[in-house]
Amino acid sequence: MDKEEQMLAATLQDKYKQAERRGFPAHTGFLTPAEVSFAESFCIKEKMSFLLTGGYEDAERRICVLDPADYEFLCVLKLSVPKGSKPLTHRDYLGSLLGLGVERSVAGDILVRENGADIIVLKEMAEYLAQNLIQVGRAEVSAQVCGLDALDFGEQKTEEYTDTVASLRLDSVAASAFRMARGKAQEFIKQGLVSVNGRQILKADAEVSEGDRISMRGKGKAILSQVGGKSRKDRIVVTITRFL
């Protein structure tokens, strides 16, 4: 383990002991996809009861709940901007959030809508964020704390296209999905920037299957929607759905 993994391992062990002492679940802050993968492997190895959750099925950032019980630690910070405001991006919302002086780990995924955004946050920080996050970019925003059932994914814009790949290796499919050279896709994978179904994958030759969701940090998300037959050049025909 490197130093960061050692620190996370120590945190997980401390949280687990804390949960056992109190008889009530303990949890980490939001983890990156790489940290999520490590936490899962570590907790299984150490035989610790745990749950990884980010508020919805395909969440990239998740908290690790140790000794989990029927209790929800997350909620939604629903932000609304006035009509006619300049469109805001994920980076705008994240920048304003961090501008409050909070750690990135207090918030999970940020789902941008046309008229605002839904940010999954730790319940213990929700009211503070709602009271203080009053501006994003140049737009004034209003904030409301809601349960996870109020999560709004907005209108997901996608494009679907058919391509051929040499194999169902992750580097080959990712190169097609994000329209880059296979060598470039391999670099992203090696750097830990690619995940499949929310789990970080470091092996370029890992095989993916129909229905898998592939995320590449800074490039977006895509789904391997369909795996077809072979082309005349003996390549595999695939259908890719790319989130715009």
Report on the structure:
By secondary structure, this protein is an alpha+beta fold. It folds into three domains: 3-66, Ribosomal Protein S8, Chain: A, domain 1; 74-150, Alpha-Beta Plaits; 158-243, Structural Genomics Hypothetical 15.5 Kd Protein In mrcA-pckA Intergenic Region, Chain A (Roll), CATH 3.10.290.10. Helices cover 28% and strands 31% of the residues. It has helices at residues 3-22, 33-45, 90-98, 123-132, 170-177, 182-190; strands at 26-27, 50-53, 63-66, 74-80, 107-113, 116-122, 135-136, 139-140, 142-146, 158-165, 194-196, 199-200, 213-216, 220-230, 236-243. It has a six-stranded antiparallel sheet with strand order 10-15-14-13-11-12. Strands 5-6-4-9 form a four-stranded antiparallel sheet, covered by helices on one side. Strands 1-3-2 form a three-stranded antiparallel sheet, covered by helices on one side. The longest helix is centred in the first third of the chain and has 20 residues, at 3-22. It is globular and about 60 Å long.
